[in-house]
Specification:
single chain, 62% helix
Amino acid sequence: MSHARELPNWTIFLIVVPCVMLMVLSHYTDAPIGSLVLLMIITVAYWLPSGCAWSRRHRNTQAIVALNLFAGWTFVGWVIAMCWALTVPAPTLKGVQSSPGEPV
């Protein structure tokens, strides 16, 4: 029995998508390959908070992706999204019901 560790899906996504981008851009532009590699690295870094949240199955993944999409281009927005993606959500209480006005 093999105990080889499998790569998470988001890791494969972060490898395949930039490589495809690099191939397509190098075919249709005359830009130097170094510029295209830099563009690929920036793209991967930009979406890193979303990838982390998705791979950790964070319960606020959609909100983190939205924050990353709309405010990730600012350094502050990207740092907030990354910190949020790396937090461990507080456990929720299941099966506990309270009546309105009754203290929990």
